[in-house]
Structures are given as C-alpha cells and as structure tokens.
C-alpha cells in the first residue's frame, strides 16, 4: 500500500516550531504531532534562517482533507453494505433453491449455462 505524501499548513508548522522553542524535546513533539523528527529539524532550521518567509506555501487545507476523509469513509461503508447485501442475497437464493426441490432454480441455472450448451440431465 502506497501512502500519499502529507502536506502541512503554515500554521501547523509554526505551531510545531513554537512547541520546540518552548523547550519540549524533539522526540516528544514528533510523536505528539505524528511527524518525522527530521522533518521537525528542517522546519526549525527554515524558521531560524528566515522567520518571516518560512513556510510560504499554501499547504493542503484542512477542509479538503476532511472532505476527502469523509468520502473515503463513505466508500468503505458502502462497500461493506454491498458485501453484506450480496451475502444476504446468496443466502436467500440458497433457501429458495432448497424450497424448490433441492436444486437451483431453473432461471438461475439457465443464466449460468454457456450459449449453445444443453441443460444438464437429471
């Protein structure tokens, strides 16, 4: 599974640098923010070199991330619902088949036959 690259907003980076400047250990801040410590080193260095110009990019907006996450959750939920309904349908078809003399319904077996093949004898 390939993870997409995360993009952080300027505000997030500034807050991370501020945490480091307050004296908190780098490893602690990295774990709390779920960011690689090397990334925090780079952000701190960029901020020290040019405090006013640091992190001038736009980053990905939180709104876009939340919308994307919401849609992914919805896709997952709908996939689970589809799987459940398929199992339910299969179960219902099996129950119907047992009620029709123990064999699959003629409609179902006819649709599974290849064109030009004779129906099974029996």
Description:
The protein is mostly helical and 122 residues long. It has one domain. It has helices at 10-21, 26-33, 37-49, 62-99, 106-112. It is rod-shaped. It starts with 9 loop residues before the first helix and ends in a 10-residue tail after the last helix.
Write the layout of secondary structure elements.
Elements: H1 10-21, H2 26-33, H3 37-49, H4 62-99, H5 106-112
Helix pairs in contact: 1-3
Poorly predicted parts: none
Number of helices: 5
Termini separation comes to 49 Å
The number of distinct structural domains comes to 1
**Count of distinct strands:** 0
Topology as a string of helices (H) and strands (E) = HHHHH
Helix content: 55-70%
Query: Tell me about the biggest sheet?
Result: none
Structure class: mainly alpha
Percent of sequence in beta strands = under 5%
Q: Mean pLDDT, rounded to whole units?
A: 81
Radius of gyration: 29 Å
Shape: rod-shaped
């Amino acid at each position: 599974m390939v993870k997409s690259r995360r993009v952080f907003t300027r505000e997030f980076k500034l807050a991370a640098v501020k945490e480091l400047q307050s004296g908190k250990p780098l490893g602690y801040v990295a774990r709390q923010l779920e960011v690689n410590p090397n990334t925090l080193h780079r952000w701190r260095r960029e901020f020290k070199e040019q405090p006013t110009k640091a992190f001038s990019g736009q980053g990905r907006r939180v709104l876009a991330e939340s919308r994307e996450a919401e849609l992914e959750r919805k896709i997952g939920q709908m996939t689970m619902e589809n799987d459940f309904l398929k199992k339910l349908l299969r179960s219902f078809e099996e129950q119907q088949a047992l009620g029709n003399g123990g064999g699959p319904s003629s409609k179902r077996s006819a649709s599974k036959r290849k064109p030009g093949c004779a129906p099974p004898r029996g």
